[in-house]
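Priority: medium. Attachment 1 of 2:
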């Protein structure tokens, strides 16, 4: 666990950093949590992230331009929904992949676990961005349409590595542990959460790839801590209970099946 004193991060502040580009959300409770990793560990993991090309590569520009063809379509609308990163609401991104509605009832252990994991992922990604002020696609091309309201803070934030992709990947690794029989669709949604940032013109494709790699790395480090394993056991009880309960599927599952027909 992070040591006390500057390492504690208020949930509201965390969300502003993780979801740069979203409207500010006022805190609903005075909840302060810490991540699982010591500051020295997050610094080491961040230092291992390779620096980006200072300007977008031809492959990045071509890939980003290709995503513009999705504007206004089903994949674009999914990217809009993927902009929700606030625990517990972000858990519903995995409803269809897991086969249960993650927000149908309060799941305090899962919310706690996801919040602490997000703190570590955002902290590591923020450190990795230091000294790498890569501009977002929508900043390089002011005419680029984005699918969320881009705040001034979000516009100014570097795009490398994609912290949203890192969080989405870390959450996919988490739900793969909570529901290993659903790992294939869970991992697919984790990747798509990251790709949604490229679809939205917020990150370059290589930003997303770097963020995904960072998410896997952070999750592996977090999963090695006893405190995480304790929280995971409690969250597993909640997820198992929800999966065992009968109930209607999420309204978005039909759209996901159309977009990803090969997922099991």
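Attachment 2 of 2:
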């Amino acid at each position: 666990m992070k040591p006390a004193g500057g390492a504690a991060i208020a949930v509201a502040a965390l969300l502003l950093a993780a979801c740069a580009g979203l409207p500010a959300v006022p805190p609903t409770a005075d909840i302060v949590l810490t991540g699982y990793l010591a500051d020295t560990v997050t610094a080491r993991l961040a230092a291992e992230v390779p620096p980006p090309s200072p300007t977008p590569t031809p492959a990045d520009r071509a890939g980003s331009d290709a995503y513009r063809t999705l504007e206004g379509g089903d994949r674009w609308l999914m990217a809009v929904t993927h902009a929700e990163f606030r625990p517990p609401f972000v858990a519903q991104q995995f409803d269809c992949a897991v086969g249960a509605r993650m927000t149908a009832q309060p799941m305090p252990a899962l919310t706690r676990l996801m919040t602490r994991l997000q703190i570590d992922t955002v902290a590591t990604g923020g450190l990795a961005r230091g000294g790498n002020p890569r501009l977002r696609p929508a900043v390089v091309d002011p005419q680029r349409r984005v699918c969320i309201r881009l705040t001034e803070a979000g516009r100014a934030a570097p795009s490398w590595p994609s912290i949203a992709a890192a969080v989405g990947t870390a959450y996919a690794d988490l739900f793969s542990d909570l529901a290993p029989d659903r790992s294939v669709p869970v991992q697919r949604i984790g990747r798509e959460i990251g790709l949604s940032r490229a679809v939205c013109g917020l990150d370059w494709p290589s930003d997303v790839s770097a963020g995904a790699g960072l998410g896997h790395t952070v999750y592996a480090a977090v999963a090695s801590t006893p405190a995480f394993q304790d929280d995971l056991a409690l969250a597993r009880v909640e997820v198992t209970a929800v999966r065992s309960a009968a109930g209607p599927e999420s309204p978005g599952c039909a759209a996901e099946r159309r977009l990803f027909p090969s997922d099991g």
